[in-house]
Amino acid sequence: QIKGDPMPIRHQAPAKAKARPVTEEETKFSAYITLRKARADARLVGIRAKRAKDASDNPDEMTKVAKDKKAKK
Q1: What is the DSSP letter of 13?
Q2: Residue range 8-34: average pLDDT?
Q3: pTM for the whole structure
Q4: What are the transmembrane regions (predicted)?
């Protein structure tokens, strides 16, 4: 136990943010959609890199594959 005077507790009050009107950008922003897009981008990085590499290696085949897939549907 402390014998003598303990050090004083000094709290600094947090700065209060003043009220302001909500901007149009803030009303259109959706945190859920932003997170979903970020997770999808992180998940698909490797696949997109592979497709980009394949497309740069042989551009003729990539257009043929895309056309064949559309024709099958």
Answers
A1: P
A2: 91
A3: 0.51
A4: none
